[in-house]
Amino acid sequence: MINISDLVKRFGAFTAVDGLSFSVEKGEVLGFLGPNGAGKSTTMRMITGFLAPTSGQVSVCGYDVAQQGLEAQRCLGYLPEGAPAYGEMTPRGYLKFIGEVRGLTGAEGVKALDRAVERAHLGSVLDQPIDTLSKGFKRRVGLAQAILHNPPVLIMDEPTDGLDPNQKHAVRSLIKEMSADKAIIISTHILEEVDAICSRALIIDRGRQVADGTPSELAARSSYHNAVTIGFAGEEGPRALPELQALNGITRLDERQEGGQALYTLFVADKERLLIEEVSALAQSRGWNVRALYAEEGRLDEVFRMLTTSDVSERHDISEEAVV
Question: How many Å apart are CA 5 and CA 21, to the nearest integer?
């Protein structure tokens, strides 16, 4: 439903997007990740046709965005960064206007507006000027306009930005609910969001792809993958440490306090090794009073830091600024 081939965008001598190629199928929620200035928003603007690429090709639902822009945009719902809207309008008036632009009039337009308002939970502010709304409500107005025409493809830049925890949960649930029959790309800095709603994650750095896989596949690249954390009752921990450290292949042991309890994490170079079985057997044989024992799944934030190095402040990147 989305196909991107050798996509490049240059601003003068600066290359913001450098040869990106990927596709997104129906039923996928792709988490589009990267540090500030990596080229995420620029890529989204090219997918949606708001910014022309220097080279490469984008197709949406089989339509070439450069050659068949209107046809492609009819298939798209787009929530841009900042959720811009007409501040003097009310959400009702704005969504009615967007519906008319989309060709949704009469009973069909009313039905589409009501559905979007319900899904974005805008009923309490429907007739209040958008300029007077909180950042979270403005974001939800932007979400409502993106889904108003029930498009098969959704592109959303930081969809939960500015929302409180309850609102974030509602939007994430909505995205998961809609994902069955749509192709969805979301840009986010919230890595827990990737775990919560994304079936796949693609990481870019300095405009180039550096990783692509399911969240669990990426987490498996973390040094924490299959590491084992153990906690003891009382003062037993320090006495057990020498034996834990003596286990074959232990490369590192970290200690931290959590809830007033000391926890020790043991790392091994072989991430496929079932270290937890060995630690459990050792604890049972020694009769240790164990309060906690579990295998770590891996940490996306560590993988993200390992794979990315760019920063907008270092690069003076104009690509993430307002390019209209």
Answer: 4
